[in-house]
UniProtKB/TrEMBL annotation:
Residues 277-287 have a biased composition (Basic and acidic residues). The keyword Transcription regulation applies. This is GntR family transcriptional regulator. PANTHER family: GNTR-FAMILY TRANSCRIPTIONAL REGULATOR, MANNOSYL-D-GLYCERATE TRANSPORT/METABOLISM SYSTEM REPRESSOR MNGR-RELATED. It comes from Kribbella speibonae. The keyword DNA damage does not apply. SUPFAM superfamilies: Chorismate lyase-like (SSF64288), Winged helix' DNA-binding domain (SSF46785). It holds the Pfam family GntR. Keywords: DNA-binding, Transcription, Transcription regulation. It comes from the Bacteria. Residues 2-73 form the HTH gntR-type domain. GO terms for molecular function: DNA binding; DNA-binding transcription factor activity. Residues 261-287 are annotated as: Disordered.
């Protein structure tokens, strides 16, 4: 059955890259694939799972119907330091929404808040005893309806009560602004980035198969005197590129202008030469 599985996988992959299946389209069901190719449902499922592992499709809903759906292609750049820039303009939206709108993509969020004992590494970062109940705020972030990332932040109970972060509602302007407004302006951040394999929660939230590659960013933030939060963002592996920018506003703007001009020149050259698909896989819209 290995040959049959490979044939199904190759056919579906070609169809996606050829545009027969557009982002947001449903792929054939496992039963339909079994009937079309004369294979077992398990062989069809193996091919579909591999498409999800490759980042070409995800399990989810469109208009109330569940199935395996074609993902948009290319990488999405996320400027991880944008929300921390001193000159960041005030707005009524958080960093994820701001950045999504810059790229003309439609953001959506699903928010939950609970109070419970955090993972041991989070309690250590917050400087709390291991059995302390903290505020845990989780946002599932979607782009154009696709599950894209999950952001989860933990707050010490006293800080959450003082700032209103113990409210069971999303804070549209973002928690960084809320903390600053309440007298807890963050002045330092430590980021740790690693890879991980999707577990059951990741699979359900992000529409990936178990073991799919993920990119995990853990940020510990503080004022001059105390740690304010620990935020862990889980993103799709192979679909995102994290960008850190440090320095003054003028220098960062100069770098961005030069990169934009370089991209325009590269596009002009690319228009005159054949493409092998590599550029699309390594460059994407900026988020």
């Amino acid at each position: 059955m290995a040959h049959a599985y490979q044939q199904v996988l190759e056919d579906l992959t070609r169809a996606i890259y050829a545009g027969r299946y557009q982002p947001g389209d449903f792929l054939p069901t496992v039963r339909d694939l079994a009937d079309e190719y004369g294979i077992s449902p398990s062989t069809g499922r193996q091919a579909v799972n591999e498409l999800q592992r490759m980042g070409l499709a995800y399990s989810g809903y469109v208009n109330g119907k569940r199935g395996v759906i074609v993902r948009s292609r290319g990488r999405t750049d996320f400027h991880a330091t944008d929300a921390l820039r001193p000159g960041r303009a005030g707005s009524g939206t958080d960093a994820f929404t701001e950045n999504a709108r810059k790229t003309h993509r439609v953001p959506a969020k699903r928010f939950t808040m609970v109070m419970r004992v955090p993972p041991a590494h989070v309690a250590r970062r917050l400087g709390l005893p291991a059995d302390t109940i903290v505020v845990e705020r989780t946002t599932l972030q979607l782009l154009d309806g696709e599950p894209w990332s999950r952001e989860r932040s933990w707050y010490a109970p006293d800080l959450a009560a003082k700032t209103g972060l113990d409210s069971p509602h999303d804070i549209e302007e973002g928690t960084i602004r809320r903390l600053a407004e309440q007298g807890f302006r963050e002045t330092a951040h430590r980021d740790e980035v690693t890879d991980a394999a999707a577990n059951e929660e990741d699979s359900a939230d992000l529409g990936v198969i178990l073991g799919a590659p993920l990119l995990v960013q853990t940020r510990t933030a503080a004022t001059d005197t105390r740690v304010t939060r620990v935020t862990q963002t889980v993103r799709l592996g192979g679909r995102n590129r994290l960008i850190w920018e440090t320095g003054n506003e003028e220098g960062i703007d100069a770098i961005r202008r030069q990169l934009a001009e370089g991209s325009k020149l590269a596009d002009t050259v690319d228009d005159e030469a054949p493409t092998d698909g590599y550029r699309e896989s390594t460059e994407g819209s900026e988020l």
